[in-house]
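FW: tagging you since you asked about this chain on Friday. Here's the raw sequence from the shared folder, copied in full. Didn't touch anything.
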Amino acid sequence: KLLDDDDPRVVGAACAALGKLGDADSTQTLMSHLDSDEPAIVAGAVEGLGHLGVREAVPRIIPLLESPDFDVRRAAIVALGELGDQSATDALEKLREAPWQGLAENPTEEQKQELQEAVDSALEALAQGS
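HL: got it, structure written out here
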């Protein structure tokens, strides 16, 4: 029911919750939410897919590393680390120096650090998986 809410933040939170709950039956729903125009929904869908370990989503998530939205970009970085697919390594390496470049809003120092740590963690997870 929450996936049909009028508030994109509620829908995004519901998507993320489906992943945290391990609801594998929601994979197609989450994949379809990647096409939303609402960053909160996209970020939640990416988070949910990462938690579920849906490796088929990797090709759809990699382009989101260039999203101008902070939450979408952060969710994509984290999910790619969780999914452990080596095909994401080059795209994450490109972000390593300044993962906040290209964001629509100027990030705070805390947000910059958060993105930097997320990229470093994702790359470390990918390196351990190889």
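FW: Helices lie at 8-20, 27-33, 39-52, 58-61, 70-83, 89-95, 109-129.
HL: agreed, and The chain is about 60% helix and 0% strand.
FW: great, closing this out.
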